[in-house]
Amino acid sequence: QGSPILAFVIxxxxxxxxxxxxxxxxxxxxxxGEFESGRAAVLFVLLSTLSALTAAFIGSTSLVLSGxxxxxxxxxxxxxxxxxxxxxxxxxxxxxxxxxxxxLPVLNVRNWIEVAxxxxxxxxxxxxxxxxxxxxxxxxxxxxxxxxxxxxAATRFEQRGVITTIATISAIVxxxxxxxxxxxxxxxxxxxxx
Length: 194
Fold this sequence. Notes:
The chain is mainly α. Helix content is 70%, strand content 0%. It has helices at residues 4-29, 38-65, 74-101, 109-131, 147-156, 159-178. Helix 1 (4-29) packs antiparallel against helix 2 and helix 5 runs antiparallel to helix 6.
């Protein structure tokens, strides 16, 4: 619904964000993006946050200058854009790196049963907590019910297991929020735009 120039500027901002993030990660976290220390994880979060501002600022500025978004909505647009990009980087990047950098673990039958139980629990509880009705008042504290599932993955499985569990829960939260359901939805119907 925007002009090709606007799309080009937004695309350039998004590309620049990825280039900035990759440069930061390679320089300060590690060439392969391994999260083997607390320092590396904290640096990754800080640098992802900093680079997420790049696309949010460029994109929101271009939307305001083109008249697509009123200037009064600039701050809220930057904030929303920033949150989405930062969360995406902090969830998807570790997921991709965890599955790409390490060989698949060898699991016995007992481990496979526990993996299946963890997956079922993560999906079932996430659907129940985040897809349920939000008419019961402030249901946001219910989000903490998913925390023991993450702790289970963290104590019983390696980084790949906990990162995959967090990504699964996040995908379910995202799905229900976009549908206008659950405690994080802004309205009663499906979301029509971000």
